[in-house]
Amino acid sequence: KMDDLYDSLRRDRPNPSRTWGYYVDVLQTVAFDRIPLEVHRSTLRKCLPDTKQLRIATARRMQEKNFPKHPHMFEERIVEVMKNVRKAGGTLEVDEYNFILEQYAAVGHYMGALNILKDMERVLGDVRIRSYGLCLQTVAHRLSLPYPLEEDLRIRTECRDVATEILRLMAAAGKQASPVILDFTLRILKDTKDVNSFETLLKSAYGI
Fold first, then answer.
1. What is the mean pLDDT of each run of 10 residues along the chain (208 residues)?
2. End-to-end CA distance of the chain
3. How many Cβ atoms sit within 10 Å of the Cβ of residue 12?
4. Under a CB-based contact definition with an 8 Å cutoff, are residues 186 and 198 in contact?
5. Contact assessment for residue 113 and residue 142, using Cβ atoms and an 8 Å cutoff
6. For the stretch 66-94, what's the b/e string if a residue is b when 16 or more beta carbons lie within 10 angstroms of its beta carbon?
7. Burial class of residue 121, CB neighbours in 10 A (0-12, 13-18, 19+)
8. Is the pTM of this model over 0.85?
9. CA distance 58 to 63
10. Whole-number Å distance between alpha carbons of 40 and 71
């Protein structure tokens, strides 16, 4: 079982579902303390689809009004690997957290991105500006994707609130907003029709 998993993890682009199947087999048949921490880390990156493919496939499904029940169809895999990394006595590194944020950004999973950001602050202490940018990118992308008409108010309200919380956390950490952060924020404020915040940002950041 371990050999099958190792063989899959060594490949540059393994089949994500096959890798996950091998990983589950190992969890069910090998004593947990005999599974190296690096196996869990490597599985995280190999058990999920390429973000470009995921972004295209998700947008196509939504355009066809095939709205998914779960924002990220493989979120359970992410949660399981994160739990196992901690159970093995380790923590995720910055790049691994950002890898998850990139996955969530590809599908617009803004609630998941906010939860990951808060976990980063709790575990790592210091969060880089790139991570805040990925979270805001997630919100902006969700607003650009189709959704049922009856969900309009809920999604726009949640996106506005999540974006506000991300910016609050960033300010509390003493981080300076980058041009990318400002651009994503402008897009979000425009799409959520938060006129007051939109005008305030234009004045303070752009001098308009």
1. 95 94 96 95 96 93 88 96 96 96 97 97 93 96 92 92 90 87 89 75 60
2. 62
3. 5
4. yes
5. no
6. eeeeebbbbbebbebbbebbeebeeebee
7. middle
8. yes
9. 9
10. 23
The Cβ of residue 47 has, within 10 Å, a number of other Cβ atoms equal to 25
Amino acid letter, 22: Y
| Spatial distance between the Cα atoms of 198 and 190, rounded to a whole number of angstroms | 7
* Predicted local distance difference test score (pLDDT) of residue 171: 85
150: which 2 tokens? 């009856």
| Nearest Cα residue to 181 out of 139, 115, 134, 133 | 133
pLDDT of 202 reads: 63
Structure-token pair, residue 167: 């910016």
HEC letters along the chain? CHHHHHHHHHCCCCCHHHHHHHHHHHHHHCCHHHCCHHHHHHHHHHCCCCHHHHHHHHHHHHHCCCCCCCCCCCHHHHHHHHHHHHHCCCCCCHHHHHHHHHHHHHHCCHHHHHHHHHHHHHHHCCCCHHHHHHHHHHHHHHHHCCCCHHHHHHHHHHHHHHHHHHHHHHHHCCCCCCHHHHHHHHHHHHHCCCHHHHHHHHHHHHCC
